[in-house]
Amino acid sequence: MPAIDFPNSPSVNDTHTVGNRVWKWNGTVWEVVRSTVPYSTGATGATGATGSTGPTGQTGANGNTGATGNTGATGNTGVTGQTGPTGMAFAQTTEPANPVDGLIWVDTDGAVVGQAVTRWSKAPTGGTTSLTGLDDSSVTLSYTAGYEQVYRNGTLLSRGNDYTATNGTSITLIDATLTGDIIEVIGSAVLAIADVYTQAQVNSGFIPQTTNFFAGKNKIINGDFGVWQRGTSIAGTGSETFSADRFLWIGDGSGGTRTFSRQTMGYGDIAGYEYPYFFRFNQSVAGTGASYNYICQRIENANTFAGQTVTFSFWAKASSTTTLPAIYARQRFGSGGSSETSTTVASSISVTTSWQRFTYSFTVPSIAGKTVGTGSYLTMDVYHPINSTFTVDTFGWQLEAGSTATAFQTATGTVQGELAACQRYYNRYTATGVYSSFASSAFAQSTTAGTGLFAFPIEMRIAPTAIDSSTLAFSKWDNTHYAMSSVTLDSATTSTKNAYVYGTGSGMTAGNIGYFGANNSASAYIGFSAEL
Question: pTM for the full model?
């Protein structure tokens, strides 16, 4: 390239041309502004210093899954699990020796054909297709074709697709077993079973439902006259008298003498019923002016059997042939309720000197449109002769649903149950010794007054409204006894579960503790009434 001879003292923006190149003076140096001469690329200069790292970019999409690697080495064998229960292994005529849990023994010494479930389990050698004979527990393969289930390592196989089974003693697998496979066959085998019962023999061991023995069937409580808390011989006084528990006499007139008593039943007197007692109504003095004279039982709640057909039954006999005037069923709707309804159940019932069962079916009126108040009840009233003497015995009062009198039973079906049912309405503490304790605790409030707490054995229908008593005492801890001339209920604290009783006496010391009980009398008592 020729030498370049730039002019001296150039002015800004002066140009100078040499060949194909043009330079311009920028006031300090001459700058090339155009060149058309192709020059070869000079050597690459040294790499500059690395700049600082920029921020991390977003994560890119996952790439395709790579190829599966080679299978790793087999791990160590795990701990052996507990041995499962032994399958059925005995179908024989004698009991197996040394039985274990899960064993089933089928006694096969009879001629009756039955079915037994079998479990056949085996770990055959690899390559096995035919299964037969004994398994690993010496159980013989046996099944009913079409009812077997075949499992391979716990998986149920498909009949016809995975195996064939036709003869009951062998099975052919479609695919041969591998080493370690477990084959199980659940099947049923035909066996002879002894000591079986026919349906008729089994049925004979049960009481047919037609005998109707069940608690609650009979709505009359104490219908066998087994409970007499008030005593076993009671004189009829005034216009109402309770005798056997739940049974009430109601009458009018004057001058009559009546006794209600428990009598001993002779075994066999009433065929099929060996109950110990019956009820006797003896009117030894006729009296005058009576218009009604009857024994009844009030059944709690006027809606009992309302609108239903029912049957009332009882046994009766008399010292001489006697006509009972009538039997009525009455619904009384309680305080604030509707007026009573009355249904004539029977009339002019002739009672002879021999036990006879009387049965009467009738419909209890519906209570639709009625108002049922507190203390409502349904009552069965058996009327007796008026203004005359007689002795009439009765037993087995029963009121039940339906138009047929079934076998008699008590309301609860048990002796204790019947007593408890009676104690819902009346509960009496009776002395068993001359100083028997009745109240669980008592204390003297003053020299003339004591208070005792009575806890009832059965919750009563309502808080008792009346008490009756005889020969009571407040007895101090040192066995000093103070006669109670009278006792009254504390209505403010008495409930259906217990009662506080105030007693009046003399000679006590205020603050002394003790109990209420008998005052030197084995006939002492105190009773609490919640009767309807």
Answer: 0.64
